[in-house]
Amino acid sequence: MKRREDLTTPRQRLGLGVHYDPEAFGRFSETIARTLGTARFLVFQSVFIALWIALNQLKQFDGKQLQLLTLLLSLQAAYAAPLILLAQNRQEQRDRIQTEMDRRVAERTQVDTEFLARELAGVRLGLSDVASSSELEDHLERVSRAIEGLADRLGALELRTRTTEAD
């Protein structure tokens, strides 16, 4: 084996020229996983196996038919397991992305909530300096009494002035 002289360029991958769409293959594997993971599939498979065994018992075939059934089930298991694992990995990736999005939304919500809490505290502080309606009524009552008292004095003063001018 000869060592490369130039280490600045990466090695080219040895490929067989097989290209596939990973997303399409992933969707295919999820479809298979959803199909194999249903009760309907298990019932159909059980009925198929029971019919296979019953047919072999009735026809008195040799053991090769049972070996064929074993081969078919083994092939199914050999392909189903990796496809199910691929589907689970894709689901984990989606869950990770969803968790990250949920975390971002929670952070934004927390920031918004803290902002609103500060704004509400500012409004409460601003309202603490504002007089209440009962305080305003008390002040208005006092001013009204003061005006009535001044009006009475003014009336009394005018009466004195008239009586003094009349004398």
Brief write-up:
The protein is mostly helical and 167 residues long.
Would you mind describing this structure in some detail?
The protein folds into two domains: 22-125; 133-167. It contains four helices and no strands. The chain has helices spanning 22-36, 39-59, 64-128, 133-166. The longest helix is centred in the middle third of the chain and has 65 residues, at 64-128.
Number of strands: 0
Unreliably modeled segments:
none
Taken in chain order, the helices and strands follow as HHHH
The first-to-last residue Cα distance is 142 Å
Q: Could you describe the largest sheet, including whether it forms a barrel?
A: none
Estimate nothing, just give the exact number of structural domains.
2
Shape: elongated
**Spatial extent as radius of gyration:** 46 Å
Counted by DSSP, the helix tally is: 4
Helix content: over 70%
Residue share in β-strands: under 5%
Mean pLDDT: 84
Which structural category do the helix and sheet elements fall into? mainly alpha
Keywords:
167 residues, mainly alpha, 2 domains, 4 helices, elongated
What does the secondary structure layout of this molecule look like, with pairings?
Blueprint: H1 22-36, H2 39-59, H3 64-128, H4 133-166
